[in-house]
Amino acid sequence: MRGALDIVRGYLRIAALLPAGGIGLVCALVCLNLILGLLPVVFVVATSVMIGRVPEAVAGGVGSAEWSSLVVTFVIAASAFVVQQMAAPLSSATPKARGASARPRAA
């Protein structure tokens, strides 16, 4: 039980530092982390749907509505992947841009 209490104290110390970062930066990083958490799910779901649509698209041919649906799903999956790859470095670079240290200070 002591370990859990130490973990909670650590989180509370981190929460106490949030006002020093500024409301804009904190909100931006929270939104960025939410997006980074959702994008892999969007990618996996879109890829799964895309794979499921392949048989109908092949049967319908290139000009069919099924093919168009496959292409749209592919674009969604590819976009989620690209945005995730572009946004991930921002998560660690944003505090450094303001001059904040990425390492915690010694207590």
What's the short story on this structure?
The chain is mainly α and 107 residues long. Helix content is 85%, strand content 0%.
Based on the model shown, name its key terms.
single chain; 107 residues; mainly alpha; 3 helices; elongated
Task: Provide a descriptive summary of the structure in words.
With 107 residues, the protein is mostly helical. The chain has one domain (22-97). Helices cover 85% and strands 0% of the residues. Helix 2 (23-60) runs antiparallel to helix 3 (65-97). The protein is elongated. It starts with a helix and ends in a 10-residue tail after the last helix.
Tally of structural domains: 1
Please state the CA-atom Rg, rounded to the nearest Å.
21 Å
Helix content: over 70%
Mean pLDDT: 86
For this entry, what is the oligomeric state of its chains? single chain
Structural class label: mainly alpha
Largest sheet: none
How big a fraction of the residues is strand? under 5%
Number of helices: 3
pLDDT < 50 runs, ≥5 residues: none
Q: From N to C, what is the helix and strand string?
A: HHH
- Coarse shape: elongated
Number of strands: 0
Gap from first CA to last CA: 23 Å
